[in-house]
Specification:
Blueprint (H helix, E strand, L loop, with lengths): L2 E3 L2 E3 L5 H11 L4 E11 L6 E7 L2 E2 L1 H4 L6 E10 H4 L3 H11 L23 H6 L3 H12 L9 E7 L4 E8 L2 H15 L20 E2 L3 H32 L3 E8 L1 E8 L2 E8 L1 E3 L5 E4 L7 E6 L3 H5 L3 E3 L8 H5 E4 L6 E4 L4 H11 L2 E5 L11 H6 L5 E16 L9
Parallel strand pairs: 2-3, 19-20
Antiparallel strand pairs: 1-2, 3-4, 4-12, 5-9, 6-8, 6-10, 7-8, 7-20, 11-12, 13-16, 14-15, 15-20, 17-18
Amino acid sequence: MYKTIDGVRVWGDPLENAVEQAVRCSQHGDVVQTLLMADHHKGYSQPVGGVVVYDGQVSPSGVGYDIACGNKAVRTNVTFEEIRLALPQLLDEIYETLSFGIGQKNKQPVDHELFSDPDWHVFSEIEPGLTDTLQTLARNQLGTIGSGNHFVDLFVEEETGILWVANHFGSRGLGHKTASGFLNLAKNKPFASKVSGESMEDVPTLFDVASELGDMYIRAMKLAGKYAYAGRDHCIAKVLAILQAKETFSVHNHHNFAWKETHNGKDVYVVRKGATPSAPGQLGFIGGSMGDYSVIVEGIDSKENKDAFYSTVHGAGRLMSRTQAAGRFTGKGKNRRRSGGAISSEQMAAALAAFGVELRGGGTDESPFVYKKLDTVLSAHKNTIKIKHRLKPVGVCMAGENEFDPYKD
């Protein structure tokens, strides 16, 4: 059951700074309700794990820089036992074939019907030539993974022995430039201006959906959503080809987006930042840490789920920041390194070995020690969702430990 703090509905243990931020969100704009899921923590403008429901408005700062970040999970037609001995080689091939890290480009050109979508013209309405610039970036990055907490993982469903594949990333540079561009426009600056940097203390940036900027942002956001879906599809297809496996079932969802939905008989915009939609019967993937189980959940028809505006967690929630875990960056370029963190590489390696996980890439800022146990946060939402599949990681691929990315939480 949730508690209400200063009008904010809070699941799980409240974090004071996130609650304060959620209260601040509730005081700006035409807000219907503000909520915090059990994995919440402070974010940029709106808490991660935060949901703000608006009447006739949308918040580009609430959706955030990684528009349509989300997950795709697929059940394959092979068992883990069939590939167990080849797992190290398969992970090597996945890591070498896909592109991990900031600003990475595809190793082979990618085309997709998405690039003919008429919504690309929204950028030309803003500035001549902008569509071509962003399309070039998007073509180069379709299906690349990025850094931070983004991953491509192999799982076994222990109950059946079946192998699953899942990924986690969003709209890459397209989403980041879309978000920063519209935040610039909101300040009467050119779309492509240098980003001044957003403070976590900033109040939400808001557009009326009936305004020109609001309409353009929604079109651009939806395009970034389609792009994120296409990228995750492309990535999964590559992994299935490496595994010589086929998909038998899939779950695909965003958790950074603004959805137009009907609640209590009224059309509203639900801005979920690190929160998974969970309408009755709706499936979603929720990832634990690299040393914990992940799950497929289904929203249930309950009063509490209705009170949650059909929203739930998107992950386990961090216990410590990246800097606390891995230390601060020093040096530049290829000499850029972290040092002074609370978690050592040896600690992380031992924990993963004990849980039976092979790792490619990854750093101590993503180790199992920096996240809550997923079951803990899921238990806070037991009256809103039910677990359909429980997945144990066996192989994890992430960007290298010295990648810096401020917008991937």
